Amino acid sequence: MPKKRIYHSKKKIGQIPGSLIYTGERSKEKLFIETFDYTKEFCVEKELQTIEESFEYKNTDSVTWINLNGLNHVDQIEALGNHYDIHPLVLEDVVNISQRPKIDDHEDYLFIVLKMLYYDDNQHIVSEQVSFILGKNYVLSFQESEGDVFDAVRDRLRHAKGRVRTLKSDYLLYVLIDAIVDHYFSVIEILGDKIEDFETAIFAGDVDGEISQKIQDLKREILKVRRAIFPLREVISRIEKNESPLINKKTITYYRDIYDHLIHVSENIDIYREMIWSLMDMYMTSISNKMNEVMKVLTIMASIFIPLTFIAGIYGMNFEYIPELQYKYAYFILWGVMIVLFIGMLFYFKRKKWL
Amino acid sequence: MPKKRIYHSKKKIGQIPGSLIYTGERSKEKLFIETFDYTKEFCVEKELQTIEESFEYKNTDSVTWINLNGLNHVDQIEALGNHYDIHPLVLEDVVNISQRPKIDDHEDYLFIVLKMLYYDDNQHIVSEQVSFILGKNYVLSFQESEGDVFDAVRDRLRHAKGRVRTLKSDYLLYVLIDAIVDHYFSVIEILGDKIEDFETAIFAGDVDGEISQKIQDLKREILKVRRAIFPLREVISRIEKNESPLINKKTITYYRDIYDHLIHVSENIDIYREMIWSLMDMYMTSISNKMNEVMKVLTIMASIFIPLTFIAGIYGMNFEYIPELQYKYAYFILWGVMIVLFIGMLFYFKRKKWL
Amino acid sequence: MPKKRIYHSKKKIGQIPGSLIYTGERSKEKLFIETFDYTKEFCVEKELQTIEESFEYKNTDSVTWINLNGLNHVDQIEALGNHYDIHPLVLEDVVNISQRPKIDDHEDYLFIVLKMLYYDDNQHIVSEQVSFILGKNYVLSFQESEGDVFDAVRDRLRHAKGRVRTLKSDYLLYVLIDAIVDHYFSVIEILGDKIEDFETAIFAGDVDGEISQKIQDLKREILKVRRAIFPLREVISRIEKNESPLINKKTITYYRDIYDHLIHVSENIDIYREMIWSLMDMYMTSISNKMNEVMKVLTIMASIFIPLTFIAGIYGMNFEYIPELQYKYAYFILWGVMIVLFIGMLFYFKRKKWL
Amino acid sequence: MPKKRIYHSKKKIGQIPGSLIYTGERSKEKLFIETFDYTKEFCVEKELQTIEESFEYKNTDSVTWINLNGLNHVDQIEALGNHYDIHPLVLEDVVNISQRPKIDDHEDYLFIVLKMLYYDDNQHIVSEQVSFILGKNYVLSFQESEGDVFDAVRDRLRHAKGRVRTLKSDYLLYVLIDAIVDHYFSVIEILGDKIEDFETAIFAGDVDGEISQKIQDLKREILKVRRAIFPLREVISRIEKNESPLINKKTITYYRDIYDHLIHVSENIDIYREMIWSLMDMYMTSISNKMNEVMKVLTIMASIFIPLTFIAGIYGMNFEYIPELQYKYAYFILWGVMIVLFIGMLFYFKRKKWL
Amino acid sequence: MPKKRIYHSKKKIGQIPGSLIYTGERSKEKLFIETFDYTKEFCVEKELQTIEESFEYKNTDSVTWINLNGLNHVDQIEALGNHYDIHPLVLEDVVNISQRPKIDDHEDYLFIVLKMLYYDDNQHIVSEQVSFILGKNYVLSFQESEGDVFDAVRDRLRHAKGRVRTLKSDYLLYVLIDAIVDHYFSVIEILGDKIEDFETAIFAGDVDGEISQKIQDLKREILKVRRAIFPLREVISRIEKNESPLINKKTITYYRDIYDHLIHVSENIDIYREMIWSLMDMYMTSISNKMNEVMKVLTIMASIFIPLTFIAGIYGMNFEYIPELQYKYAYFILWGVMIVLFIGMLFYFKRKKWL
Fold first, then answer.
1. Which residue of A109, A146, C101, C154 has the smallest Cβ count within 10 Å?
2. How many domains does chain E have?
3. ipTM
4. Per-residue pLDDT averaged across D75-80, rounded?
């Protein structure tokens, strides 16, 4: 199994600060841009070829969501950034995928980075960086590659479900972040299942030598999830307490709801962490128990047959005068003695609960 | 043994925020509504068919306690909520049973969520969510299913025992929370008993391979109890320090009493946690001790009989000229030598304290 | 050995708050009341039959110490409490022996609960609750049963040793608490001795299977002592910082001295705790070392004699043509070979340091 | 392998405070001094023989970077310090290489100490102390020996890449620190590789007895890196929050960037630390697994052949009357019995999954 | 080896507060008093018989250092204390050697207690209490016994080296504390050496059964050092931040230097602590590795020779008709078979890397 490194190679060492360099591994991603422009009354959804097509929405009163997939297309990102007057350092952070979840308040807009978590087809956890820029009446979102957890949001926008169409860009941002955080629940559900599968396997003794490797892998997964989720609590908590005019008072209640979810997820992660540490203990005891069992078999076999073999050896000696050898029934008597010894031994081990 | 997952399946992923969806597993619970309406002078107890029957109590001066069991009946909860002007997000939290204990101050009323803990018939711990809404002269309580720890409270209301009938709704809330917290004591008492039973079993060597699984289960129970109780301390502490006009100054002393109880319970939980971690250590040493014992039996048997068998083997050789074979008493002398060896070995092992 | 539970059965579940119920196990204690009434000039010591006899001291200028033993006599405590105008909740705490050390400031008096620790005759640690009520010119003290650590204090009062007779009730309280805290030193001294005895026993290999049980018991003792002492630091620190007019500025220096003692004791407890955790490690290594030794004996015996037995077996075969069997000195040559092998093996194990 | 002590011998014990004594081990380093003097328009780079040649730059408006390698040349450092009016205690800290990363604000200049980390040719981590003194228009830097991570910076200065030439000395300091912090990433990358190599080796069972020594060495490396990096976070955070007029508001954003990098590196270090602790656990289980395997081979061999040998021993006895011996096919029947026993045993061990 | 208790027997239990009782074990120490009285111009050094001889220095302008060794001479200490108007509680602390490092500000003087650490001839760490009283122009120091780390200070005083003669008593105190703290470095250097010696010994497998005892002793030493040094950081930090007029602003920089040293030492101690915990792990793995090796030898010997012995046993049977026995070369063929088996086994174990 090829191992994924938990760090990203720092391609930027020695680079001039402020230069836009995509640091991820998906350098051949196709560019995918979509826009939703809506008010309570209408909602226009488009798929764009180049980012320039989205520039018309900037000065409208409607709320605009521009979603760009493919961080390798740095020129497009730069163009969009320049159009919306985004600071170069922010754009640098957008394409540098080794960011921790964080929030930067740039007066005209908020910059939020977080991690989307999901399991890929090989059941490896994938952490994809998603950046949001929240402006007065727009939300820009940047993803590494196509495919995300926002389909329910798109659906609500299209069909005006819930309140999303009636509220402003701050509520749209909430809905998007909420979709990501909701998805964390399915991730930790899978983590929980994995832990229980290990538990069941260890208790059933159904373990091969690879289990400790798998447990180590699971530990690493949990560390990865922790790193994505724990700093996000701080981010959301800062939105809550933020006096930014970009977030309406009413919407803050919803962000508090996300915060509650994150606390809930975090608690579960810490529980899993504790449980996985004790899994290792369990595994050790299961190994020791097995060895105990092996030793018992050996001890029982040896303790029973070595003395019997000794007795047989005695009467295999060639001394000229061994009186027992002449008795006619000596052989059968000896068998009797041996059987008694054998049964006595069995009783002894039975009483010791080794059998 | 079927394992209970420690998370609840998040049925709400992708749902519109604010929608009332019961997230628990008891979706077929019968609706059970009871009301207590009392002043110092009288106390009227009723069992209702529909929530509408309780609406008459809203504008009276008497204190009203409406207790609703069956969170799956979201329509009834919504009706009650609307009648008392409760925010939809609060109602959403009432029916979403994966809440952490928390308190929300909504000016006109306080919303408090906590967990009722008890052991079911299979000795599995059950954590049932109970929500309280405390208003000026009413307390609304919501439980997942019928059956609770409030019987003593009902009795006191009916027979005007203690001060509950003479005081306001804030004291009623105290009495109800106190009943739940009092019950925590019996839960941790059972936890304590379980830990001691394990200890006794491990020390007596009376353990089967399942003990590590049981210890893991116990760890999980303790984590569950921790999760229910620890955030509650924060909740009660916020009531204490709260300037809410709904809580009288005099009643705060009583809440401080609950707080003391919770600290007491928390300390015990942490002690149990530490003890259960060291239980695992004990178990490991007991396994090692057992293996030691097994090894000693093997070593003693082998060390005694292998050399003797060797000697017997010597005189079983067919060399034409082995002088000893001709001596008449050689066989008996050899027996003597062997018995001396045997006893010598026993002494050796005795001195090594292996016997 | 009968095990003591670390929790007290919560007899109060479902009881009305404010009711005086003794929760301890010593329900048959004899009532014992003594009073010391003193000024610089005189000191009157009395032993009373009923609490009413003490009521005369209330309105005098002299300092009065009323010491009541036997918390099961709730009526006497209630009478005393009413006479001195003590709040019912305070009296409830006096007789509820599962209190954590705490201080409550009730303006007219301070209420302080702490734990007296000592070892009983079976070398089990006993934690007895002592409550103090400090008023303007009186100290009330409540103990579960007769017998305490205050004899030196009584002596000083009687013979006007030190400054106790020249100062007020706040200094008396200091002297009493100091006596209790001083006694903690002998408790941790015994704990220290026990730990060292275990160390010595483990290092000497002089351990039986019960040692891990005893270590677990010791852990529990340390947890018990911790629970008694750690919250007391907070209590004393609050007296120090307290602006209560009941404590003179000058006396505060003395309380700071107690605080220093408590820090000292706490540090020792934490050190013991760390040491006892590593004791378990030591025990594990000692078990492993023993097993190693057992295995070596087995391996040496088996490795030496199994090959030799094989050789003997060879010449015990009945093939018609085994040339060696005919040589006259073959038997002696074989003995030589075997002895060489034997010595070679010994050398080999010697070089491996297994002998 | 020669072990490096993690402390430096404190040559200074008993010395008069304020005396300049180099405490490192590279006491024969050649002196190397270089200067960069630049404005937006020009950049003059020089290599000096003595520090006096650099004195001309003090009172110019251009930014001057004086980089001195060879802390053993205390006289040169003292001369430079006196010329720039640096406090003797600061100079003492410059040459005392056992400093923790720290920042001291001396109004006219900031003094910053940090550690440059790199792997030497033997793959041992080297921690070299670098001190910076930031003045109004100069940066003094002091290194233990020639060779550093500043080549990219020099290049940017020479060719006016990026913004370094257009900004002041505070930006130059940022660029220099950034170069050092960037290099931390390659250090932790190597650490991560080492950990994974150990994991792979342990999982592959490809471990020799030295692995635990190597793990211990790795732990020490991580501790060393931790000690260099963790206090630096505090240093940078203090620059950020600093109101020092030497740091422009605009440059602070860049320092925040360094801070983010340091948090990132710190998190990785803590993850590595956790992983290396669990590596030890893995190693233990792998040892136990191996022992289990060894025991199984022994048990299978012994359990199969000891009973068979016993049977052979039976018919090697010399009793005069053993009926079986006379049957013609007895020998072959016995072989059959033995083979059946042998196969039965194999099945038994197969079913137990020992084979 | 006699074990030193880590607590001191509390001789003071039940004593009247404020009484001067020496609590240490060196009750037969000789009294040794020396005085240094100096200004920039002169320095008078004397050795006194009784403390009264030092009283002449009190009202001079010169700085006086009175150093008293032998805390058992409580009368001399009391006399000195009374002469300099020191509070009785301070004197009590001077002779009670179980103090934690602390500082008390008594307006006219500062009282500082700390611990001098050194290794005695048996390589046991010794912690000796040193108390300082810093007045306007005097420093009083109290040590348990003669012999200290102040020789370099005395030398500097005598020969007016450094700045000590030109500055006031606060600088003298700094120099004295600095001498003690400097000595901590050699203590932790020895600790570091010990840990490395253990590591080397464990890795070389050169361990006897006593190593775990020695590691436990080392843990205790580290705890002792921790207890002496960690609270001292707080003490020095309070001097730094202290607004006491007894400490000049200029001198505070020097105290900050001590603080830096203490942080440095503390970090090393924590590293040692972590390393010693993992030493125990290493030791466990080394034991397990050894057992593995023992088991392999046993398994190889048994697996090879038990089957061979079985074969020999077969042809030692006395059946009348065993065809092989009659073939002339059967014996040699059997030898061939056995040798093939033997070599096959060796190959098998070789391939399993057990050889």
1. A146
2. 2
3. 0.75
4. 92
